[in-house]
Write a sequence for this structure.
């Protein structure tokens, strides 16, 4: 399990947004940040601050990836032909833990990472326990037979607060998800606006 799991609600409060759209997010009750200085009036944010915030929000969304992990993914997005921001989103959505989360096999991205690491997931019939494993178009992600009746899975399938995106074909009876295509930014059902263009600007200057 990621050591950051216990701090996931702090990410929402730090950003001042309910970035996963969860009903229990503390931002639904108070929008100021955590800590004794959280209620201080915020001034106008600089361009650097806006770019940094966009990066932290996107990085936090995918389970609060480390800076090293996120920068590596960004560097790859930059090397691939096309728009770097769109490439970045596509690479993040191809992570196995992201696919497990999007398919509603588990309730949170943090749970998805743990679920994969504990060996509950297969890709094309083979067990994969690496959360950062990159899924390809046409791959079939499934929950192992012995794990399909786990309470976390049964509860996640019933969650009303998010839908399965159309770049996945999911069968909750068989507990399988086919990765149909790499999504563009507009295809990804973020609960709040993500701005990968600002992330690109951030790394271009830093």
């Amino acid at each position: 399990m990621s050591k950051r799991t216990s701090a996931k609600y702090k990410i929402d409060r730090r950003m001042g947004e309910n970035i996963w759209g969860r009903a229990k997010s503390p931002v639904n009750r108070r929008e100021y940040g955590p800590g004794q200085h959280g209620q201080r009036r915020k001034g106008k944010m600089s361009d650097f601050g806006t770019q940094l915030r966009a990066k932290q929000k996107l990085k936090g969304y995918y389970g609060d990836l480390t800076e090293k992990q996120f920068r590596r993914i960004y560097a790859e997005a930059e090397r691939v032909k096309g728009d770097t921001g769109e490439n970045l989103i596509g690479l993040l959505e191809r992570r196995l833990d992201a696919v497990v989360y999007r398919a509603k096999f588990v309730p949170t991205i943090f749970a998805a990472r743990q679920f994969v690491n504990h060996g509950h997931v297969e890709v094309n019939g083979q067990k994969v326990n690496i959360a950062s494993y990159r899924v390809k178009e046409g791959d079939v992600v499934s929950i192992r037979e012995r794990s399909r009746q786990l309470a976390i899975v049964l509860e996640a399938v019933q969650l009303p607060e998010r839908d399965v995106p159309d770049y996945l074909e999911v069968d909750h009876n068989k507990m399988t998800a086919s990765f149909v295509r790499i999504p563009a930014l507009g295809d990804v059902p973020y609960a709040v606006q993500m701005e990968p263009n600002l992330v690109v600007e951030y790394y271009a200057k830093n």
In short: The beta strands are 121-123, 126-127, 140-143, 168-171, 176-179. DSSP finds eight helices and five strands in the chain. Confidence is low (pLDDT under 50) at residues 1-6. Residues 166 and 187 are 8 Å apart (CA to CA).
